[in-house]
Amino acid sequence: MARELKEVQGIIFKRQKYNEADVLAKIITKNYGIITMLARGALRPKSKLGAALLNFSYGTYIIYTNGHGLSNLRTYKNIKQFNHIFTDINKNAYSSFILDLIDHAFIEYQHIDQYYLLADFALQKINAGVDAEMITQIVQMQLLAAFGVKPELRHCVICRKEKGNFDYSIKYGGVLCSDHFYTDHNRLHLKPKETAVLRTIGLLPAERLGEITISAQTKKATRKAIDQIYQATIDLNLKTKKFLDELNLLT
């Protein structure tokens, strides 16, 4: 495929120095998935590229690409930044983890469809001051399908009952109704309200969830449950998650 100029809309989420004055920046885009851009000379004092490649900057980037490998950043326009995420260590940590998760779910240039919208939704909410942990849990539950682990949350995995008290079973890959708790002694033993939260944030489109307010105790329980699901089914070892866990120990 011949190289050509393309305009991509997206969010910068990783950058690193490359050679003496160049920068490699990863961007999650609406139409082309995740792309790594090479910005030559971005670290030189007179370069205008560097400021447009700060983490959590977003806008339109003009790249020279053939659809795989490194793309060359030529210029940009209408660049803005999620300022509160950039300057707040907690918002930054949650947002970095969210984008790191998405980065590990897809290969470069793979269409990510609704997950770009999910990422944009999450960062907009976190930047606006909405509970960052709850937003992160929403993303984690909805991103499971992208890793090939789509839990059954609509009904009991055994009898298909949709109403009643439920618990989550990693063994069966979804929720069990109380009639079938006996089938998995290692189910997560969540309270009905905690399982209800997991079902809600995993099933409803993010834009319909609005403001979710739950107690600190429930949020801690759902965090632990989601961590168990990820550890048992995907087993990622992300530095962003480790840092986030360390922050949570301090709060």
Kindly describe this structure.
- It is built from 8 helices and 7 strands; from the N terminus they run βββββααααββαααα.
- It has a 5-stranded mixed beta barrel with strand order 1-2-3-5-4. It has a two-stranded antiparallel sheet with strand order 6-7.
- Helix 2 runs antiparallel to helix 3 and helix 2 packs antiparallel against helix 8.
- The radius of gyration is 20 Å and the shape is elongated.
The overall strand count is: 7
CATH class of the largest domain: Mainly Alpha
CATH topology description of the largest domain: de novo design (two linked rop proteins)
| Helix and strand composition category | alpha+beta
Query: What is the name of the CATH superfamily of the largest domain?
Result: Recombination protein O, C-terminal domain
Element-level helix/strand string: EEEEEHHHHEEHHHH
N/C terminus separation: 51 Å
**Averaged pLDDT:** 93
What is the gyration radius calculated from CA atoms? 20 Å
Secondary-structure blueprint:
Blueprint: E1 4-18, E2 22-29, E3 33-39, E4 57-65, E5 71-81, H1 83-87, H2 89-105, H3 114-127, H4 132-143, E6 166-169, E7 174-177, H5 192-203, H6 206-209, H7 216-233, H8 239-250
Parallel strand pairs: 3-5
Antiparallel strand pairs: 1-2, 1-4, 2-3, 4-5, 6-7
Helix pairs in contact: 2-3, 2-4, 2-8, 3-4, 4-5, 4-7, 5-7
